[in-house]
């Protein structure tokens, strides 16, 4: 028997657990933000742990959190969630720098500050982007599986079949055919031929 070793993904992956925890954290942060700003006035602004929030900002966090919980069901989708976090919040971080004046020129100035971000939000969004990159590249937990492979018989060549046929032919030639019994018989053992009703005298033992 030969052994074949394969590598397979083993059960629940760390990226799935991290994705689910991140989703819960986003939802909690968004819900707490709604308790501060309410949902009636979308222009309302408040603070949660020093971060500026408004209803739209809170809604973004809740949606991102729900998406994280759903995509945590599979290791592949959890990694995709990490890439989405990285791309989305990295772009938001650059926009935050423009809004808060850290970058001199803001090409999206006409949109104003819809998420009511401040400097603390800038670094929060940068941290989320880096966390998303971590999710995307975190190594998978794998296991080695050793399997036995049956050894198949080697195919017989034409020379082998010819050799076997020759052996069988030789055995057939050595077979001795039965020899007819020509030993003379007694009168009691003689049998009358039904065709001639005679007994062969040559076979009668005197």
From TrEMBL:
The chain crosses the membrane at residues 12-35, 55-73, 80-103, 123-140. It comes from the Bacteria. The keyword Transmembrane helix applies. The keyword Transmembrane helix applies. Residues 178-189 have a biased composition (Polar residues). Residues 155-174, 194-206 have a biased composition (Basic and acidic residues). Residues 153-206 are annotated as: Disordered. Keywords: Membrane, Transmembrane, Transmembrane helix. This is DUF4383 domain-containing protein. It comes from Lentzea xinjiangensis.
